[in-house]
Design a protein that fits this description.
The longest helix has 14 residues. The mean pLDDT is 94. This protein is α+β, with helices and mostly antiparallel strands. The chain is built from 6 helices and 15 strands. It is 22% helix and 28% strand. The chain starts with a strand and ends with a strand. Bound molecules: zinc ion (ZN). The site of zinc ion has 6 residues, from loops.
Length: 264
């Protein structure tokens, strides 16, 4: 479902949310924008990811500003080391939460802020009301090709006896087809895996434009996620310079953060 989101401003921090998730008062989630923290160009403000071009102090202050705006300051922020893998990981209050190499996380426990960082890739959150389970994923083209979110959903469905159609799934701002060019070799990899690949491709002036979001949705429909329970924010990170960092637009740049947390 498209156009189901809100833009919030709190303490001068701007972030997006998906309305459906706000029906559950024990869940807090947000897709950050780049406005307005303390980092300087090229990070232009609310950079939430450690990198060589920005100081760790800036990132720490920005993360505090972001979590404060969400009233999440008292909870534990989990930031996995993302490697464009198909690895997902269950987090609990007892697990070691440093140096987790994963591109998706889930938990049934309260007080843990699951997070991922993006600058064009698809940020995905999910919620299962029955088991009080939350999840998060960072998905670029490799994650889509390796079906990260599908693998995690299948595993959760088996472990908790969930049906995919009952999961609430939210997809945040990412680079859209208008700005996402791929090469023939990447297209061929998708064609080998997915018969519906051509539905995600537009050819223009001998260039190939790929629709990451549509590919994700088609994968979700294939495992029978419900069209009534999947919500997406169709805003292009490349086009909307005012709100988003974009690796494709800027090269080395800041990172947006997506978070989801159970507070009770
Ligand atoms: Zn665009």
């Amino acid at each position: 479902m498209i156009n189901c989101y809100k833009l919030h401003e709190k303490n001068n921090i701007l972030y997006f949310s998906i309305s459906k998730f706000e029906n559950y008062p024990n869940i807090i989630h947000a897709f950050s924008s780049k406005r307005t923290g303390i980092s300087k160009l090229p990070f232009e403000a609310l950079n939430l990811g450690y990198c060589q071009k920005d100081s760790n102090e800036n990132v720490e202050i920005n993360r505090k500003l972001f979590l404060n705006a969400l009233s999440l300051s008292n909870y534990k922020l989990i930031t996995p080391i993302q490697t464009h893998s198909d690895i997902f990981y269950e987090i609990s209050n007892n697990s070691t939460t440093n140096n987790i190499k994963a591109d998706a996380l889930y938990t049934t426990e309260t007080g843990l802020i699951l997070s991922i960082q993006t600058a064009d890739c698809l940020p995905v959150i999910l919620y299962d009301h029955k088991n009080q389970l939350i999840g998060i994923a960072h998905i670029g083209w490799k994650g889509l090709l390796n079906q990260l979110i599908i693998k995690m959903i299948k595993s959760l469905c088996e472990k908790y006896s969930i049906k995919p159609k009952n999961l609430i799934i939210g997809i945040g701002p990412a680079i859209q087809q208008c700005c996402y060019q791929i090469k023939e070799d990447v297209l061929e990899l998708f064609k080998k895996e997915f018969p519906f690949t051509e539905d995600c491709v537009k050819y223009e002036n001998s260039k190939i434009y790929f629709d990451l979001l549509h590919m994700l949705l088609l994968q979700l429909w294939e495992i029978r996620a419900s069209k009534n329970n999947v919500f997406w924010i169709k805003l292009c990170t490349y086009c909307n310079k005012k709100y988003f960092f974009s690796y494709r637009r800027e090269g080395p740049t800041g990172r947006l953060m997506t978070v989801i947390c159970k507070i009770k």
